[in-house]
Design brief:
The chain is α+β, with helices and mostly antiparallel strands and about 130 residues long. It folds into two domains: about 1-40, no CATH class; about 50-130, Class I glutamine amidotransferase (GATase) domain (Rossmann fold). Helix content is about 20%, strand content about 25%. The strands form three sheets. Strands 4-6-7-8 form a four-stranded antiparallel β-sheet, with no helix packed on it. A two-stranded parallel ribbon has the order 1-2. The protein is elongated.
């Protein structure tokens, strides 16, 4: 489709392109482009990453340290009627429920799949619970 248009061309990918940028980069590399990335550090507030304030024991958070950083992208917050289900919060000037758990039901306000090793641990914990 593109022939050799991108072959040996220098392509600069900028910003916090995340998932979309990674696919763009892979695609350009398959077309033999020379891809270079540049990104400024994220602003401190609001940041895509925020630390968890673990309030109580949780099957989902087993092995996760208090203060671990996770990846948030949202424009809303949950406000559970029963605060007993909130097991972790994040501080955005107000407490944002970050993890809820009630028996076999789990929910996160953030993206575990984008939260590195901490997120992988949570996903493993979730899968372990699903097997039981």
């Amino acid at each position: 489709m593109f022939g050799n248009f991108f072959k040996d061309k220098k392509i600069l990918v900028t910003g916090h392109t995340g998932f979309q940028g990674s696919w763009l980069t892979l695609w350009l590399k398959l077309l033999d482009a020379n891809v270079i990335g540049y990104s400024l550090p994220p602003p401190t507030k609001p940041s895509l990453f925020e630390s968890l304030e673990i309030e109580k024991e949780s099957k989902l958070l087993e092995g996760v340290d208090n203060g671990s950083w996770v990846y948030f992208v949202h424009s809303y917050r949950a406000k559970p009627l029963d605060q007993q289900i909130v097991v972790a919060n994040a501080d955005y000037g107000i407490n944002v429920p970050a993890v809820v758990e009630n028996g076999i039901y789990f929910g996160t306000q953030f993206h575990p799949e984008k939260s590195g090793k901490i997120g992988s641990l949570m996903i493993r914990n979730f899968l372990k619970e699903c097997k039981q």
